[in-house]
Amino acid sequence: MPDLETCKDFGDVFALVKRSVKKTLGLHRVGLMLLLGNLPMNVGAFHPMGTNEIVLNRRLLKGKTGMTERSHLFTILLHEYLHTLGFEDEAQVRRMTYKVCLENFGRNSPVAEAALTGPWADLSEEDFEQIEPELNLELVRNFERPDSGYII
Ligand SMILES: [Zn+2]
Fold it and tell me: Ligand 1 centre from 6 Cα, in Å?
């Protein structure tokens, strides 16, 4: 079982996301960037289609570092990562997210729980443009590690 407890930053969690997706779905991609922004509270993250960006909701993360928050962070990054792999159908992405969590962490894990509870509210491109002045986007450095940096 992958170890979410020892993850220290976004890059660690994302490496675990990529490894889990590779294992369960056999899919993989590189070249993604993570930005933090002020999204509505019911939105975990947002992937502007056709970009290589994931915008994570900064408001959800304030000062929280426990396993529950890490589990939510894992499922949110996993969900958006699946979107960046080209899956656009929301219901399908949620099913896939849950499947990856089940296979890598088990049914009774906080990760599987987080995959069921969300937050999974949708944000349209129009919504995103509308809130742009308030977003306060900030690039997360060292988000994507070289793939040779960890052992599968
Ligand atoms: Zn989605």
Answer: 27
Helix (H, G, I), strand (E, B) or coil at 47: coil
Domain membership of residue 57 as a residue range? 10-145
5, part of any domain: no
- Report yes or no on 150 lying in a domain: no
| Mean pLDDT (whole number) for 10-29 | 96
What separation in Å is there between the alpha carbon of 8 and the centre of ligand 1?
25
How far is ligand 1, taken at its centre, from the CA of residue 2, in Å?
A: 24
Measuring CA to CA, which residue among 109, 3, 97, 7 is closest to residue 44? 97
pLDDT at 95 over 90: yes
Q: Is the pLDDT of residue 56 over 60?
A: yes
**How far lies 54's CA from each of 31, 113, 115, in Å?**
11, 22, 18
| Domain-embedded: residue 1 | no
- Residue 2 counted as domain residue: no
Task: Give me the pLDDT at residue 116, please.
Answer: 93
Cα distance between residue 111 and residue 105, in whole Å: 7
